[in-house]
Amino acid sequence: MDQETALDLVKKGSTVLLLDVPQFTLLGIDTQMFSVGPMFKGIKMIPPGIHFIYYSSSNKEGNEFSPMVGFFLSTRSAEVVVRKWNHSEERLVKISEEEEGRYAEGVRCLEFDSHLGPYALNQYGEWKQLSNYITESLIPVMHEPIGGDITIAYESGLIEVPKTAMEKQLIEQLKSSMFSKLEREEHYKHGCYYTPIPNSVNHKGISAEELTAINLDKTKLLEKILIKDYGGEEDSLLGELQVSFVAFMMGQSLEAFKQWKSFVILLFSCIEAPLKTRTRLFSKFIKVFFHQLNHGFQRNKNHSNSTGKEISLFLDEAWFSKEIFLFRLCKDFFPLVLDSSVVDGDLLYWTRKLKVLLETALGWDFADDEDDEPYPKYCTKVAKVKVELDK
């Protein structure tokens, strides 16, 4: 890149000025992550739009790290966002508007330019695939009113009995963290407000057979959530799906993982919606889901499992077992779409790509019925339905 082009990008792109961040801190923006050096003061040439900043502070030796802390922000062309490291709280905080204005002027005069790392524009396309439904209006609804950062260190009140290897790992990280020493009552705060998604449905006044059918096909539950919580806007649901994935994957939030998992289970448990009532939504959902898994599988591929296949450090090893929820959901969903006599072209295309990704990246064989047990959704008992919804 020639000097004139680079200068133009510096002026038109947004800048995140991060002051006094300790050396060795792991810091990321979107899909990019690096270790902070002694001269680091922020990131320049950031494309305007939605971004996610996340970081993990280190000890003096740079070999032990605290849980990840992250926050969403929306930037405009040539905007300067300033955060300063609070050493007592071990996190980035906002500064006064007056002080931020002075620093912003210094950035525009290129006073900090030699201390700012450039945003890797060749990775921006991957970030857009993970965030294209996250809008500027969605972030305040989910994030700002509650305030605070997204971090598992503030989620101990949400943790009950760990059910998966991933949850156990996150909880252990929380217990050994410097954040666990904070006074919970004083500092506890959520980073996001998520839409409640019930696991099952109970309608009064209908037969047991009808109730079982509703819980086997979550189409009616999906419709209720879409209308009640999103005003019928399908893209808003996909936006929250992407927010929860980013907060879980980059921010390592257990709360976000649970929300993302709830979305995935809800959508993959629909039978009528993909083929009839919400084909457009499912075409977009499968595409979003494909890019999410593809991102997770490709990051930091330097370990191998027992079969010699590489394992991403970004996804826990438990993901690569057939015992997890994802295998069963996909095993039931793929025939629904792929064996249908009439199916939307985009839905068919992305479903095939997703199936190939799981087969090649994980070695999953969806045609192998050996030792298969009935998927729990087909064993739903009316007596165990716990969540009640109004008619």
Automatic annotation (TrEMBL):
Transmembrane feature ranges: none
Superkingdom field: Eukaryota
InterPro entries: AAR2, AAR2_C, AAR2_C_sf, Aar2_N, AAR2_N_sf
Any Pfam family hit: AAR2_1st
GO biological process annotation, one example: spliceosomal tri-snRNP complex assembly
Domain AAR2 C-terminal: start-end pairs: 194-366
Entry similarity comment: Belongs to the AAR2 family.
Stored PANTHER family: A1 CISTRON SPLICING FACTOR AAR2-RELATED (PTHR12689), PROTEIN AAR2 HOMOLOG (PTHR12689:SF4)
Protein name per Swiss-Prot or TrEMBL: AAR2 protein family
Organism lineage string: Eukaryota, Viridiplantae, Streptophyta, Embryophyta, Tracheophyta
